[in-house]
Every structure is written in C-alpha cells, then in structure tokens.
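Private note to self, pasted from the team thread so I don't lose it. Backbone tokens:
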C-alpha cells in the first residue's frame, strides 16, 4: 500500500506540474484511445497502417488538416470532433507552451549568468568587470573573432544580467577566484584568460585558480601596481602580467613626440598597422631571422619587429639569428596571418 500511495502521489504531482513525463503519458493514452475508437467505428483508411493514423492524428491536432485522410462514417466524424480534435489541440498547445517556457527559462538563466559553457573550447574567458575597460576589451575581442571561434565568456560578480550581450556570454559568481564558476565558463579548454579584478589581490587570486584549471590556456592579468606585475612575471612564467604604461608613455612622448600614438596604433584592433604574433612550427631545416624577415615582407607585406625565443624577447634581432621552431614572431600588419598558410619549408629559398 505505501508503494501504491507513493506512486499515485507521483502521478498526481506530475499531472499538477504538467511534467514532460505526464504530457507523454497523456499523449500515448489519447493516441491509443483515438485509435481504438476509430477501429470500432470501422475507419479502415485511418487505422489500416499505423503511419497513416499517426499522420492523420498530427495534422488534425495541429489544425493543419490537409484533407487527404478523413473519417468517412458519421461515428468516425463524431470521434474526430469530440475526441481527437479537442484532445489533440489541448495536448499540442500544452507541449508547445511548456517547450517555449523551457526555452525562455534557459535564455533567462543565461542572461542572469546561470548558464553552463563547460563544453566550449577555443574561446577566451574574461574574468572581472570594470564598466568601461572590460566592455571595450570584450568589444575588441569580438571584432577579431574568426568565423569558427566561439564567443568569449565573461566571469564577473555583482551583475544581475549580462552587461555585454553582443560580445560575450556571462557566468555570474560570488567571487572571481571561484573554481566552479570558471569550470562553467569552459576554462578547461579555453584558449586564453584575461583577469582584471577590483584590486590586485583579487586579480592574483583569480590567476592562481586559473593556472590550476587551465593547463593549456595563455593567461593575461592586469595589475595596478607594477611591482606586483613584476613579481608575477618572475614567479609565474605562464602568466603575462601587464601593468600600467601611462608613466612610460608620458615621459617617452615628452622626449620623442608621437610615441604614444605609435603605441596606441600597435595595440588597437581598429588600426591599419597593428602588432600581431605568429608561432613558428618545428622546422626540419633551421632558418635565419633575416631570411624570414625578407620573405614575409615580400610575400605578405608584413614587417617583423622581434622574436620570442627560449623565454627571451628581442625586438631588434640580428639577421643571422637562427630559428629552429618553437619561437614566436612579432610583426606589424593590417591583417593577421594564418600560420597554416605559410610555407616554412621554402622560406629560405628566396632572399
């Protein structure tokens, strides 16, 4: 008896909440009842083949009514009018309404930062929100997205809804150093992570969590205090720590007019002359920096400005500097080069 009472209670609750299981049960019962009644009424055209009956049931329930199948007898028409049509319409309306409600709930949850993007891969995660700066960062990231690149994900706190719906999806968190929130943002397969908290302590905490959960992502963090940025660079080589360059730009522009303009153009995605990076794949035959410089200039009209090799960056490489693969080249161009489109094996043929 307790089992039966529990079972009946579950049925009652499912019907009361109009759960999917209850809707499916009602649909099956209505289908079977309609089929049996048509069979008793002698409507052989409708129940002769199950496919024909299901087809007739669906076009009737959705009020499409093509007219190629219809009851021939008076009892069959009464069954359609009194049983099939009202019941089918009611079930179809309930299913449609519940489906739209579910879709709306999912969308509202995504807007409120309650979504789950843990399966996303190859995207960029932005941790932290500052009204003007973060919105600009997301806009720039969005402007450079490739055709198949997933949308960025913003992880922030104290925001009731996504503040940048055109540029990023949103994960809401009580704190930035939240492993669960970063997991829902897809940190395991993220391409890069940008961290900028309300203060340096918050940023550093987010960076430490990101390092543990994103073994292959490039991590960029902004620190207000240059001393903190330098410390992070020394202790966390995986992290690209960025500090404020305002003082350097002011002093350099005073002695070298236009320096701030050059720096702004090199870092702006909207500029026609922007700095990009290019990873060098493993090479069968070593190349010289000067050979690569000339080949890229002649073929792609880009200007090499430096190279990262063995953890050291040189912005004024000598022509005879060897390249064996694994380096990162920095160049100025109006477009980003596709690494896969460059014929590295023939790079030294032309000088």
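Design output:
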């Amino acid at each position: 008896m307790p089992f039966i009472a529990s079972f009946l209670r579950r049925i009652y609750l499912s019907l009361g909440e109009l759960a999917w299981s209850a809707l499916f049960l009602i649909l099956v019962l209505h289908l079977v009842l309609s089929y049996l009644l048509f069979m008793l009424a002698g409507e052989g055209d409708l129940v002769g083949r199950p496919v024909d009956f299901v087809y007739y049931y669906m076009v009737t329930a959705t009020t499409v009514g093509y007219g190629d199948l219809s009851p021939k007898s008076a009892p069959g028409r009464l069954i359609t009018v009194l049983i099939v049509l009202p019941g089918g319409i009611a079930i179809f309306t309930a299913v449609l309404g519940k489906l739209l409600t579910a879709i709306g709930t999912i969308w509202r949850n995504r807007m409120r930062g309650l979504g789950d993007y843990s399966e996303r891969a190859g995207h960029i995660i932005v941790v932290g929100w500052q009204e003007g700066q973060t919105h600009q960062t997301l806009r720039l990231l969005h402007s450079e997205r490739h055709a198949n690149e997933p949308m960025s994900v913003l992880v922030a706190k104290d925001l009731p809804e996504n503040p940048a719906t055109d540029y990023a999806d949103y994960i809401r968190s009580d704190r930035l150093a939240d492993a669960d929130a970063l997991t829902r943002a897809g940190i395991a397969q993220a391409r890069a992570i940008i961290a900028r908290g309300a203060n340096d302590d918050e940023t550093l905490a987010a960076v430490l969590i990101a390092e543990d959960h994103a073994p292959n992502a490039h991590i960029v963090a902004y620190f207000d205090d240059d001393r903190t940025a330098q410390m992070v660079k020394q202790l966390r080589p995986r992290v690209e720590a960025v500090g404020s360059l305002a003082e350097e730009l002011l002093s350099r522009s005073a002695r070298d007019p236009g320096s701030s303009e050059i720096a702004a153009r090199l870092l702006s995605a909207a500029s026609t002359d922007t700095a990009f990076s290019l990873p060098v794949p493993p090479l069968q035959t070593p190349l010289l920096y000067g050979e690569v410089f000339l080949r890229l200039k002649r073929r792609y009209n880009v200007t090499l400005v430096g190279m990262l090799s063995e953890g050291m960056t040189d912005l004024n490489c000598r022509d005879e500097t060897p390249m064996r693969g694994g380096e990162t080249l920095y160049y100025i161009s109006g477009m980003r080069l596709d690494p896969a489109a460059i014929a590295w094996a023939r790079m030294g043929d032309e000088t």
